[in-house]
TrEMBL record:
General function of this protein: Counteracts the endogenous Pycsar antiviral defense system. Phosphodiesterase that enables metal-dependent hydrolysis of host cyclic nucleotide Pycsar defense signals such as cCMP and cUMP.
UniProt name for this protein: Metallo-beta-lactamase domain-containing protein
Transmembrane segments: none
InterPro entries reported for this sequence: Metallo-B-lactamas, NDM-1-like, RibonucZ/Hydroxyglut_hydro
């Protein structure tokens, strides 16, 4: 088995692996390896160059064949910043995802380089917070933040923004000698444009961040109503295995859980407006079904975003 500090390698079906992010590494999100028969296809490339390097090494370790295609599901950095280790391969995304990468990623890197001197101070504060008596969920979140900053610190000086060379708008079909996969744009959901990879012969889909398992999904860069439509679209596919952008691999039924979460935060945010609570979300308790989920702070970011959007 290939070992990495960034991810665990989880076999799904013959020729397909989920590389599941570890909490303390530089991956931050999940990626996928797909044996197409005569070449390898990779879905998403993690958050840092160092995780991207291990991703490349894992692909060669498991399949020992040329890597031909890399797919970026959406523009968020934790899914594209390992791209630089695949500059000789063909990187694919939707047209809008590439545009958003051009708009956001160089600016992010420039800002982070300026903030590099402050990272040590931030790490010291977080480590001090760990000494307090916190619940398990908050402890995990702090440890994850510390790991994230340590990995970011390592990556900033070596990161090269690497863009997709091939784009599509709605659907792209990729044929290999072992299987055929479909890249499908589901439109606005978690971001302005999210793509999934569907392997019909395996009844399996890599769905990026339109699904997060046991993690609060972030809505502030997308639209919750069209996100619900995207989830319904995936439900209609002949798919059993769902590989989320964050958290462990799940099955089709979990799409209903994400739908419930989105509907719940919509209803809570609407109630804030009705009660004229000035978009103050801090007094709201996380609903019981989501109490054990990671990144509880995202719940409050989501509520604030939705409440403000509803009040405008």
């Amino acid at each position: 088995m290939f070992l990495s500090r960034h991810f665990n390698c989880v076999p799904l079906v013959e020729g397909i692996y989920c590389l599941e992010a570890k909490e303390q590494g530089g991956a931050m999100s999940n990626a996928g390896l797909i044996d197409m028969g005569d070449y390898t296809l990779i879905f998403d490339t993690f958050n840092t160059p160092q995780a991207g390097k291990d991703l490349r090494d894992a692909a060669l370790y498991y399949f020992n064949k040329p890597i031909r295609y890399i797919v970026n599901s959406h523009w968020h950095g934790d899914h594209v910043r390992g791209n630089q280790f695949f500059s000789d391969e063909v990187i694919i995304s939707s047209s809008r995802t590439r545009e958003l990468m051009i708009k956001t990623q160089p600016d992010w890197l420039a800002r982070m380089k300026k903030l590099l001197p402050n990272l040590e101070e931030d790490l010291t504060k977080l480590n001090t917070s760990l000494e307090l008596k916190l619940n398990d969920s908050k402890q995990r979140e702090l440890l994850s933040q510390i790991g994230y900053l340590q990995e970011i610190k390592e990556s900033i000086l070596t990161l090269e923004v690497t863009l997709p060379q091939l784009t599509y708008d709605r659907k792209m079909t990729i044929h290999g000698s072992a299987r055929t996969v479909e890249l499908l744009s589901v439109g606005t959901a978690h971001t302005e444009c999210d793509s999934i990879l569907f392997s019909p012969s395996d009844s399996l889909a890599f769905v990026g961040d339109i699904v997060a398992v046991d993690n609060h999904p972030l809505v502030v860069d997308g639209n919750p109503l069209s996100w619900l439509e995207a989830l319904t679209y995936v439900e209609r596919l002949d798919v059993n295995i769902i590989v989320p952008g964050h958290g462990p691999v799940t099955q089709k039924h979990y799409l209903q859980q994400i739908k419930r979460y989105i509907n719940d935060i919509i209803h809570i945010s609407e109630s804030l407006i009705r009660e004229d609570m000035n978009v103050d979300v801090n007094h709201i308790e996380i609903p019981e079904p989501y109490l054990g989920w990671n990144y509880g702070s995202i719940f409050y970011r989501n509520l604030e975003f939705l409440a403000k959007a509803a009040s405008n």
